[in-house]
Q: What sequence folds into this?
């Protein structure tokens, strides 16, 4: 769809959920760019909270300490000059810190805390108030935006996901053994799908996309096709 035609359409919300490392963020980022929408990586927000908890040695079993920490944390998203969304923790760019393996190892535990989720979901809904947003995560179509016009559930084979994540870490100068990446993905899948608060489940009306055998370009084309199919013109 041309930019001109897109401008004549009402903005929608695109909610992308799925397992760790199956291409949600890469797809969501590109789709948002093409549609001229805001892109929000909700996992990055939970990772930023995790960085804070780690740096401040917050005892996650102490509700008071968690509450105090949350009142001291401000997670925000800013668009950089290249048009990419970056995550900030208390005003500082947290992009390189949040992608570290150490953070990946702790984030599932921290993101399972009810109070953490309440604070993040509130911010995520604020960002999506005017629609025109592509957000990826684990509970976007089920909890954050149950009214989203387009809901997707991405999945892929574990080994393929592990290779992709290992390559991503390597690009950030972190060499991690493939077995360790596999263990981390398995652990997070298990934790994310079985936690009490907002577990990762496919929304009833979400469309499944298996990314095992398709390229990023094919994923993006498919999501754009589905998204434009949900758009209605201003009357
Ligand atoms: O998308 P990611 O791998 O960067 O997410 C990191 C972790 O954050 C993931 O293991 C689960 C949690 N998460 C969540 O609980 N809810 C979301 N909406 C997004 C991420």
A:
């Amino acid at each position: 769809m041309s930019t001109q035609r897109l401008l004549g359409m009402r903005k929608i919300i695109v909610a992308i959920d799925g397992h760790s490392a199956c291409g949600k963020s890469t797809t969501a980022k590109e789709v948002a760019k093409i549609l001229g929408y805001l892109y929000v990586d909700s996992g990055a927000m939970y990772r930023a909270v995790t960085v804070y908890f780690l740096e401040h040695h917050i005892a996650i079993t102490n509700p008071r300490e968690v509450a105090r920490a949350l009142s001291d944390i401000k997670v925000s998203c800013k668009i950089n000059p290249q048009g990419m969304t970056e995550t900030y923790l208390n005003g500082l760019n947290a992009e390189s810190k949040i992608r570290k393996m150490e953070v990946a190892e702790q984030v599932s535990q921290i993101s399972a805390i009810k109070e953490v989720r309440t604070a993040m979901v509130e911010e995520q809904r604020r960002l999506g108030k005017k629609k025109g947003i592509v957000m990826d995560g684990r509970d976007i179509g089920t909890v954050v935006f149950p009214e989203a016009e387009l809901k997707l559930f991405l999945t892929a084979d574990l080994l393929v996901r592990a290779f992709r994540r290992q390559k991503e870490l390597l690009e950030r100068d972190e060499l991690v053994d493939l077995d360790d990446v596999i263990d981390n993905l398995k652990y997070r899948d298990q934790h994310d799908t079985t936690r009490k608060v907002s577990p990762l489940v496919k929304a009833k009306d979400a469309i499944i996309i298996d990314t095992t055998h398709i390229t990023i370009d094919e994923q993006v084309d498919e999501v754009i096709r589905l998204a434009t199919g949900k758009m209605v013109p201003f009357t």
